[in-house]
Design brief:
This protein has 188 residues and is mainly β. It has one helix at residues 2-25; strands at 33-39, 44-48, 55-61, 68-74, 77-82, 85-88, 98-101, 110-115, 118-123, 129-132, 143-146, 156-159. The protein has one domain: Trefoil (Acidic Fibroblast Growth Factor, subunit A) (Trefoil), CATH 2.80.10. The protein has 1 helix and 12 strands. The strands form 2 sheets. Strands 1, 2, 3, 4, 5, 6, 7, 8, 9 and 12 form a 10-stranded antiparallel β-sheet that branches. The chain has a two-stranded antiparallel ribbon with strand order 10-11. A hairpin with a 6-residue loop joins strand 2 and strand 3 (55-61). The termini are far apart.
């Protein structure tokens, strides 16, 4: 009798906890909303060169108006939209990330992977990660897709436009280590 009660109690607890565990696991790592995408350890933001189809995604000096709408579609996969167009990774390795009209394909879906306080942005169709071309954090540098690796050229801050100006804070944590007049209002 006691064994039967213990079995029923364990079965009941399992039936209650399993759905709770699934609900917690299904929670997206980023809420739907408007964000800026900043290159790690810099004040450079990702921007669309234009709203025209097949326009490249580039880096630009800090621009809180260069916003992207992240829409969770499940399993930490998102569409990333700027106005009427979506970020796309339709090409192969080394191809520029582009802004294209919505077509509901996997090339316009991106999986976010947490790496500390940063994110890797990985294309759902190709499995390639959004990467800074040659790692050069200068105005106009194109973003492209490359094999996933551990280089910081694939790490991004995704934050609200009101967030800190300098992604990751200066290496020493001192404000006077920041380039030029790029003083953050707070560190991330």
């Amino acid at each position: 009798m006691l064994k039967m009660m213990m079995f029923n109690t364990i079965a009941f607890i399992s039936s209650v906890l399993s759905p709770l565990a699934l609900a917690v696991a299904a929670e997206p790592i980023l809420s739907n909303g408007i964000y800026i995408i900043q290159m790690s350890n810099s004040d450079m933001t990702a921007a669309a060169t234009s709203e025209a189809g097949n326009s490249p995604m580039i880096l630009w000096p800090y621009r809180p108006s260069a916003t992207w709408a992240f829409q969770h579609v499940g399993n930490n996969v998102y569409t990333i939209r700027t106005n009427s167009t979506l970020l796309s990774g339709s090409g192969g390795e080394g191809s520029s990330a582009t802004i294209t009209r919505a077509n509901k394909s996997d090339e316009q879906k991106w999986k976010l992977k947490r790496v500390g306080a940063m994110y890797q942005i990985i294309n759902q169709k190709t499995g390639l990660a959004l990467t800074l071309n040659n790692g050069k954090r200068v105005k106009g540098s194109k973003l492209r897709t490359e094999q996933v690796n551990t280089e910081d050229a694939q790490l991004f801050c995704i934050q609200k436009p009101s967030g800190p100006r300098y992604c990751g804070g200066p290496p020493s944590g001192r404000q006077d280590d920041l380039p030029g007049d790029h003083k953050p209002t707070r560190y991330s």
